[in-house]
Amino acid sequence: MVAGTGDAGRAGDAAQQATWASGRTADLNKDNPRAASFRKVDGTWTVEDSAETYLVDRWSSGYFSINQRGEVVAHPSGDPAKSIPLIEVVEEAKGEKLRTPLLIRFQDILRDRVQKLNRAFVGAIEEQGYAAPYRGVFPIKVNQLREVVEEIVDAGKPYHFGLEAGSKPELFAALAVHDDPESLIVCNGYKDRTFIRIALMGTRLGKKVILVAEKLSEVRAIAEIAAEMGIVPWIGIRVRLQAKGSGIWATSAGEGAKFGLSVAEILSAARILADAGLADSLKLLHFHIGSQVPDILTIKRAAREASRVYAKMHRAGYKLEYLDVGGGLAVDYDGSRTTFHSSMNYSLEEYAADIVFNVKDICDEEGVPHPTLVSESGRAVVAHHSVLVVEAFGSIDRVPDGRLQIDSDHKLVHQLREIEEEMSSRGLNETWHDVQQAREEAQKLFEVGLLDLEDRAAIEAAIWKLVRTIERAAEIGSEGEDDVPEYLQDLRAELSYQHLCNFSVFQSLLDHWALGQLFPIMPLHRLTEQPEMRGTLADITCDSDGRIAKFIDIADVREELPLHPVGDGPYYLGIFLTGAYQDIMGDIHNLFGRVNELHVFLDDEEEGGWYVEETIPGNRIAEVLQLTQYDLAFLQRTIKKLVDAAIKRGDLKPKEGMRLLGEYENGLTDQTYLTLPD
Ligand code: PLP
Fold first, then answer.
1. Which residue among 271, 390, 404, 635 is least enclosed by CB atoms within 10 Å?
2. CB neighbourhood size of 432 (10 A)
3. Which helix (H) or strand (E) holds 582?
């Protein structure tokens, strides 16, 4: 994808190319040496160009677009007529003293996603004459926040949409939030006695709780504890399929997977239950081939294999009632609609239709009843609903300030001037190689002490000037992003800016850091302006990994994002589709804590059509210190002792000492991120 490759842009390129060919390279965009990085040089940049640059229509699923003022707006119900400018939400948050980094949750998006998922299954079931219902569950590990889970439970009521818990704490939460006796609570993950007892307590309370055994010993334990408690359990078994997943999370399935029983073990489990008089307790067969499965073929294969296991068991006399297809329904983060790991080559509707079709096909062939279908889609339900807003507060430019004029008569300075003068005859590739050679030579001379600081600075300045000129000329000469010569890629990397952003990748975007997952990122405003720079995003942790240097692209992965210069006012960037996993998996590296949060609802009655339902301040300094076992009273006492001692020594006046102590104490209530000036 090329930024601004409209027709007008291409016409502009031709004019620029003519300029270059005539050898007047130094005239190009004199005031802004990087302006030529983007093709649209005739000043006709529009919001449509921005939408194309940031691929908004490709990844947003209709929940986000750009208004004519050049601001990103949300359409939380999917209705384009109802829109919320994100910048207004950020301003409102500021009024509540909540600054960036800021997580905005659109609760209406959650509702819409729950409805879309359920309707897709209900529609496919009706259309294909499938003889059992759909009873999906939301795996709360994907986002355990109470408000998120409650919203999903509420939106899912008409469809008897239930919950999945993968650990004891999740089960404790699920039992309390779940309030529909028709919907399921599916318990996955390894289980101890407490887990099993609490799940059975749910059964006793009238809930449909299914304990899914991950290994044989769990089957025995469930049977024993159920007998002790006098409760008839509902049991499921996770099958370890041969069918392998695909994508980053593919290891969740296949023979080497961490969870699940082989077919032989499933037969043993069924016999154990039959011997315990619990044959009828075996209700559900479950599989999960991993999260974010990008290829529909993988899903079809797994559905067919699991259906076959279900059908054969049924024929063998084990009257299972549910088939649980687990998670895996992907999100098209990069909008490429491909089998790339951050994308998917199918739609939600196709997913539901394919599951229904393949299960029905196998069951009909084997002559067994259609099972009630369960799916555990997490990511596809919650990813879209939250946006992380970060503020860029500066940028790191590797190019030295061109205003610094250094005179030098060094031979390499003359050589570089010559290279520049002969650029049009040498060609760009050769010029670039000559520059690299000069740079290497300068480095060697400096190492052996034959270059003084003044000369080195002058050589560096001449090199950077040339690098810029080559880059500009090369940008204009290259046909499109598919035709980027290697030397231009090197140049781009050399000249790339880093926008400094007030957030932590480790807290807010862990899957990007750990697994290279891509997220759509774009400015929230200034989208009527051409983004003149290319750059990466650096966070404020003291880790060089704390950065985003991979961005979405239709054909590939971009190494840089088109950006605007950080100007006088704040420059806000949105990181989208962060609602799944990122919220909960973040850590407090450098003690940057949870970010401020705002929950937004659409409401026709409100001026503007929306309101903030809840604000949740992020962690304060005192909180993260307590999380790491610092006792606040001890900290304050110690600092007071130090201040008193300094006063006693006469290094501090008492008044100043008390003022400094007050600052330390008040500072403990500050947010962990930078408080940037307005
Ligand atoms: N079910 C199980 C057992 C899982 O392990 C997971 C996550 O990996 C999910 C459901 C949710 O998967 P997804 O978010 O891809 O829908």
1. 404
2. 25
3. helix 582-585
CB atoms inside a 10 Å sphere around CB 140: 27
Res. 15: pLDDT tops 50: no
Would you mind telling me the total number of residues written for the chain in this entry? 678
pLDDT in tens, 153-196: 999 999 999 999 999 999 999 999 999 999 999 999 999 999 99
Is 237 within 8 Å of 212 (Cβ atoms)?
yes
pTM for this entry: 0.88
Yes or no: say if 261 and 271 are a contact pair by the CB < 8 Å rule: no
Residue located nearest, by CA, to atom 4 of ligand 1: 327
**Strands 547-548 vs 533-538: parallel, antiparallel or unpaired:** antiparallel
Half-sphere exposure of residue 651: CA atoms within 13 angstroms, side-chain side: 7
Whole-number Å distance, alpha carbon 164 to ligand 1 midpoint, is: 9
User: Is there a contact between 244 and 254 (Cβ–Cβ < 8 Å)?
Assistant: yes
State which ligand 1 atom lies nearest to the alpha carbon of 166.
3
Pocket of ligand 1 (CB under 6 A): 139, 142, 188, 288, 291-292, 326-329, 376-380, 580
Encode pLDDT of 577-593 as tens digits.
999 999 888 899 999 99
Calculate how far, in angstroms, residue 506's C-alpha sits from the geometric centre of ligand 1: 21
Res 595: pLDDT: 97
Average pLDDT over residues 460-464: 88
Q: Tell me the per-residue pLDDT of 83-96, one tens digit each, with 9 for 90 and over.
A: 999 999 999 999 99
Q: Chain centroid to CA 192: how far?
A: 33
pLDDT in tens, 657-668: 999 999 999 999
Q: For a substitution probing ligand 1, which of 141, 284, 333 has the most ligand atoms within 8 Å of its CB?
A: 141
